[in-house]
């Protein structure tokens, strides 16, 4: 990482109204460059690995990623874009590089819990000794005007050594609902996402971001990915009081209703002749869930959870309801206030723990036939529209050149029976493979489901080429 002072100073000199080369111009450039140098010294580089779960089949892939970060507190609190932590992506091996040239230092980092109401993430630098790092000082309570010029600081790619770069943009639109949102007039590269935004008075007024994804409760501006300015007031509270460390899936037990929901928009309310006060519409129920056991029905509108009104009108506001349920605690008896066919209904429901998800599913690797399979979790069953009577294991990976590969197996195939042995669980699949290996038939018939169809794969093992303990394909 290199010092960006020359780049920043050059931009300021070019933008100055005073004639270049004059003593006044030099003094003006020096005075104006100081805030920008302070900002650039707080820009850092995050590098981390991600495990990304494909919800369609539970397969997990790994990816190495780098992103711009901002030191927002001298003790090592770093803020970056919210795409670092998504529903199906878990970051690990986080490294934070701060400083430039001879002052460059690399630290380990730990992810903190992601805020629900703004698409940013926070990382805490891990260090035994107290830190006193240069940090961003955000100006709060600033209102921007339509057409107002702004400067965005980002970083370039690896081929250019991640050197800082300036972008001059403007406020292209101001949206008032559901909150004041400033839209930048042109796209920015990924290296500027999370980067600081400075107004014409050289104040750091926010960062570049994108709104919450649909899965996180957002629905505005996301389809075309237009860059926004997250003004400092949206995330200042997390700098003042940082979140705690992100819990691992193993440590976390979230309460769960077992419903799919959508907000009661004003259009829906008008169509159903209901008050335009918002709520959460139950669009689907998970079989054998607490919601089904309590008698919740499709089309019910949840307007209260315990003593708290539910007033969701936007997708993003449904997230608040989800968080209330999640944080209520497993085993809690909650009171749901509903509208059913326009009439008030009250239900009591005992919350249960969220079922295991695809990313936490158990897995078994068979080195003999070349199959790696996973258990079918509730979320996977819903996504693939599998009824409860479909019991088996799903193929996550097929080893290239293996017996299974030669038989035509591929990711996403559901194995229901292996060589005449049921495979409703991972343990049954392992036992089936071992029994077939003991029997050594010339052909192994595997009954499977692919999409909505069922059929057979026929594996022809080459036992004569295999070792005594572990046949080799």
Give a short synopsis of this structure.
With 473 residues, the protein is an alpha+beta fold. The chain has helices at residues 5-15, 23-41, 236-240, 266-271, 290-294, 315-328, 378-383, 403-406, 426-439; strands spanning 43-53, 60-73, 77-81, 89-98, 105-111, 120-126, 149-155, 164-175, 181-184, 196-198, 204-209, 228-231, 255-256, 259-263, 280-285, 301-305, 308-309, 333-340, 343-350, 352-353, 363-366, 371-375, 393-398, 414-418, 421-422, 444-450, 453-459. It has three domains: 1-246, Thrombin, subunit H; 255-353, Pdz3 Domain (Roll), CATH 2.30.42.10; 361-465, Pdz3 Domain, CATH 2.30.42.10.
Q: Give the overall silhouette.
A: globular
- Would you state the CATH class of the largest domain? Mainly Beta
Quick check: average pLDDT? 82
The CATH architecture designation of the largest domain is Beta Barrel
Alpha-carbon distance between the two ends: 48 Å
Q: Work out the count of structural domains.
A: 3
Largest sheet: 7 strands, antiparallel
Binned strand content: 25-35%
Rg: 28 Å
How would you classify the helix and strand content by structural class?
alpha+beta
Poorly predicted parts: 2-32, 213-224, 468-473
Give the SSE layout.
Elements lengths: L4 H11 L7 H19 L1 E11 L6 E14 L3 E5 L7 E10 L6 E7 L8 E7 L22 E7 L8 E12 L5 E4 L11 E3 L5 E6 L18 E4 L4 H5 L14 E2 L2 E5 L2 H6 L8 E6 L4 H5 L6 E5 L2 E2 L5 H14 L4 E8 L2 E8 L1 E2 L9 E4 L4 E5 L2 H6 L9 E6 L4 H4 L7 E5 L2 E2 L3 H14 L4 E7 L2 E7 L14
Antiparallel strand pairs: 1-2, 1-4, 2-3, 3-6, 4-5, 5-6, 7-8, 7-10, 8-9, 9-12, 10-11, 11-12, 13-20, 14-15, 15-16, 16-17, 16-18, 18-19, 21-22, 22-23, 23-24, 24-25, 24-26, 26-27
Helix pairs in contact: 1-2
